[in-house]
Amino acid sequence: MTLWLVLWLLVVKPGGATACPRLCVCYPMPMTVSCQSQNFTIVPAGVPYDSQRVFLQNNRITELRADSFGFETQVLWLYSNNITWIEAGAFSNLRVLEELDLGDNPSLRRLEGGAFRGLEKLQSLHMHRCKLATLPHDLFHKLYSLQFLYLQENQLHFLQDDLFSDLVNLTHLFLHGNRIRMLSENVFRGLVNLDRLLLHDNRIRQVNRRAFRDLGRLTILYLFNNSLAELPGQTMKDVQGIQFLRLNGNPWSCGCEARPLWEWFRKARISSSELMCTSPSPRRGQDLRFLREMDFALCPLPDPGSLAGTTTTTFSTKTRWWFSKHKPATSSKAMYQKSSETVKAFPFSSGKNQHLPSNPSTSFSAKYELSEDEVALPKLEPEEYWANYGNEDASIRCFELECPPGYDNPAFPASSSSLATPSLLSLLALSTVTLCLHLLFG
After folding, report:
1. Record's Pfam families (predicted)?
2. What is the pLDDT of residues 283-325, one digit of tens each?
3. How far, in Å, CA of 11 to CA of 322, rounded?
4. What is the pLDDT of residue 271?
5. Cα 414 to chain centroid, rounded
6. Contact 240, 217 (CB under 8 A)
7. How far apart are CA 82 and CA 97, in angstroms?
8. Is residue 150's pLDDT more than 90?
9. The dihedral sign for the CA sequence 45, 46, 52, 57
């Protein structure tokens, strides 16, 4: 019995200790295998099957194949390696994996469509700083448990429609520091539980009016440092739960196209960054949020029954009065542009049609037919409009229907009726003089 005890101590116990891979360190409770910074070029063999955490970061691993992982683990770190290729199904044996970190692999420029097949319990996926240029349309297929997705600081130019449609439990999506140029209508479809969306430091010029329609639970949205000149009227209405919004660092255009966003800010109670106007020149340097209602007095009002933010030519009383007092020498029938995306219309052609999608199915323009009353309104030329832009309040003392009798607004020239009064007095005076002369010399 003594001999058997010695053999058990010498053979069985050391055998359990040697289960840890060479050059790695193993810890119990929870079972952890640490193989970091050992210059491994492949995933080392001999990792215990019941390992809960496996750390392989800071090595020189170049490929991940379907047979690379013969163990069952919950946390797998592979960041800061030289991974260039991941075979489809490479992680399919890791059925209980909850966290996978592949960040800081600058040679990982593309991924196979089924790279993450089988990871239906994955909750956190890190792929930051990998120089990824594109993502396969089925890359996140069936990752129903994913909550955190880190894709920042790659080289993504475009996000396909329905790319994230299976990520119904995703709460955090980090896409900042890429080269994304536009957000399409269905790019975020399915993200019904998303809480924060980081899109700053990209090149976004266009956001579809329905791009955020599934993001009803979004509380944090970062879009600063992009190339946005405007946001469609419907876009922000779909994120009513927003609490923190950053839109600074964009070349905002504060003409009529800014009215939907300005009106949204008037009703929203959120923490927001500044929105500095870059155009038109009279508005440059002003904060879009703090413009006055009269700054949009000449703009067609958005149609309240339209989700697209299209316009009607319904003018306010103040606007009609402003027109009546500023009749130019000639009058012509004004043409208005009706856009399915944003409020584009001016009382004159601005010569700018910025950032409209090239796809005719997503945007169209048509000539707007005016009613008889609106035809009577004269056309306002650009020079006259900008000469009075921003000074409307200073010149308006009272509305036409509210002015007291005999009120004459000094800001505007006398009307034709006021000019007729002196002529009548002159005629009466001349008649009186003629009558007197007739009586004297009759």
Report:
1. LRR_8 (PF13855)
2. 999 999 999 988 888 887 665 544 444 333 333 333 333 344 4
3. 99
4. 86
5. 49
6. no
7. 22
8. yes
9. negative
**How many percent of the chain have pLDDT more than 90?**
49
Q: How many angstroms separate the CA atoms of 13 and 88, rounded?
A: 39
Q: Which is more confidently placed, 284 or 411?
A: 284
366 vs 32: CA distance, rounded Å: 66
**Residue written as token pair 């036409």:** 400
Number of helices and strands in the chain (H, E): 8, 20
What distances in angstroms separate CA 232 from CA 203, 345, 442, one per listed residue? 17, 13, 81
Contact 287, 277 (CB under 8 A): yes
* Residues in the chain, overall count: 442
DSSP 93-162: T-TT--EEE--S-TT-----TTTTTT-TT--EEE--SS------TTTTTT-TT--EEE--SS------TT
d(CA 186, CA 304): 24
Q: CB atoms < 10 A from the CB of 170, how many?
A: 26
Distance CA 185, CA 291 (A): 29
- CA-to-CA distance for 254 and 359, rounded, in angstroms? 25
Which stretch of DSSP H or E encloses residue 416? Answer: helix 416-441
Give the model's pLDDT for residue 232: 85
Identify the bridge partners of residue 53 per DSSP, sorted by sequence position: 32, 75
